[in-house]
Amino acid sequence: MPRHFISLHDLTSAELAGLLQLGLDVKAHRARYAGALAGQTLAMIFQKSSTRTRVSFEVAMLQLGGHGLFLSGRDIQLGRGETISDTAQVLSRYVDGIMARTFAHQDVLDLARFGSVPVINGLTDDLHPCQVVADLLTIREAFGDLEGRKIAYVGDGNNVAHSLMFGAAKAGMNIAIASPAGYRVQEKYLELARADAEAAGTRIEVTEDPREAVRGASAVYTDVWASMGQEEEAAKRLRAFAGYQVDAAMMALAHPDAIFLHCLPCHRGEEVAAEVVDGPQSRVFDEAENRLHAQKAILLWLMGGVALPA
Q: What is the pTM of this model?
C-alpha cells in the first residue's frame, strides 16, 4: 500500500523532523536532487483556485525531473459527476502520485482509499498540512530549533489552525490559538491534537483573548478572516473579528525576536496591519518560498524512495 500525506496527525514526530531536515537539504542542495523523480507524473486536482499551491508543486516536479499535470475541476469528469472512486482508480493507472486541493476533506480521503498511488492533501476545508510543513521549516530557519518554542495563531479556527495544532505538537512546540466565539477550531481536531500534545509533553491553549495568546510567542501567525467559499460572510466576519488584527502593539507582546507568519494571500488592514506584514519581523515571503522546498521533501518521500526516520 502506498503512503499518503493527508494530515500531520498521521506522521510520527520523527517523520516530521525528517521531512523538515530533508526540506532544508533540498533547499541548500538543489542540484543533488535533480532527476530524482525523472519520468514520474503528479496529477494535480484543483477544485479551488491557487497561486502558491499550483506553482510550487509544478516547479517542484520540474526541478525534480518529473512532470506536474494540472487538472481543474472544470476539465475532468469529477465536474460532471464521475465518482471519486472511479477517478482515483483511473488516475492511478496513468500517474505516479495525486495531489488534490478540494473543498470536502472526504474527497482526499476517498482518493487515498480507492487509488493505488500516493495522495497528497494540497488543501481541504479541514486541513492544510503542506502549508504547515513550510511554516515549521521557516520557524526552524529563523531560530535553529523548534522544541519548546511557542507559536500563536490569531484568527479564524480554520484548516490552517487545525494543521498548525498537529504540526506544533509533533514538532515539540506549544501553541495558543485565539478566535472569537463561534469561530473556534473544530472540537474533533482539537481532541486529536491535544492527544498528540499530551504524548509530546507540550500544550495547546484555546482562548478568545488574542493578546494573551501572543504573549511570549516566537512566531505569530494569522490568516484571512473569510476563506475561499466564505465570501458572503465577509461583512459578518469583519464585525466578529474586530480586535483580532495583528498590529505592532500585538506583536510587541510576543518574544522580542518573534517573527510574523501568514500563509497568504493577506488583506492588509484586516487580519494584519501593513506595518507588520511589510515590516522587519515578517517572514511571509520566506514562508511562501518554503512551500516549494517542503513539498519537494514530501514528493521525494512519497514518490522518490527517500526514507524518513520511523
A: 0.97
